[in-house]
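Re-run with default settings, no changes from the original entry. Doing this only to confirm the output is reproducible before filing.
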Amino acid sequence: MSYPRLTVCIPVYNSAGFLAAAIESVLSQSFTDFELLILDDGSSDGSRNIVADYAARDPRIVTRFHQKNLGMVPNWNACLREARGEYIKYLFGDDLLASRNALSKMVALLDSDPTIALVASARNIIDHESKQVKIASSFPAGSVLSGAEVINRCLFRQKNLIGEPSAVMFRKNQAMRGYDLRYSQLVDLEMWFHLLEQGKFCYLAEPLACFRIHDDQQTKKNVRNLVHVEEMITLLAEYGSRPYLTVGPLTRRFLLYNQLFRIWKAYQSNLVDRDTALAKITPHCPPRKFLALIPLYKVLNPIWKLAVALVAR
């Protein structure tokens, strides 16, 4: 039995309003040696009917319908287990591929160099009406960087510079560990770090994907709950002591405090109460020490922001 070169994975949960456009953007690709694996995670909004209709018309579409909702990350991992392709390309059910040549350009880069572990592109940020809001891009065109350098940059800037799953492609055999279930917001960035410990990073400045922002997406819910802050602290703890890190111990302490101060700012903005904020801060820094360091932090923070701006150039 022959297998496709590439598996495009669309994990779906209640994406009926955008799903058809996402599927069409894959089926219209110039690169054709792929399977389109769509796993519906117990949708209740008609997504299942849309998936079944497309699957009946195109043999490249493989479908699975979960009777019970697994959750976002378990469904991503189910896609990875079911995929038969050598390469993996995720596309969220509310996102789009922005070019007919998106798949061919990414596949060509992975084909060109077996030491490349992760390919990413710039992406168009679009709204619920598919209108472009901005272009997100964090690396110069044609960048080929060591995995360690990219991990260092992301940790120093405390940001996912690489992009969302819809903007990347990677090798299945390097990702078989699966996405880490401890994460829900930075789960993609943690996986990118895992891949980048195995090889190089290659970047395309052309926007090859569209990432949609809307009120119902999980990202906005996680940000309101400070999940992104707590998970960045976990990432710092896990990857911050790796031998390839150029970020020194004092800088790592500052970066940790920076995240703790974001929790404190959430309290000051009335997003969480004081007890909740201190409960999140205390495992990493005693409250009295945290409060005493605020004046020093306010002196050092502008210096760090200047350093970030210089690195970003």
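The chain has a mean pLDDT of 94. The longest strand covers residues 200-212.
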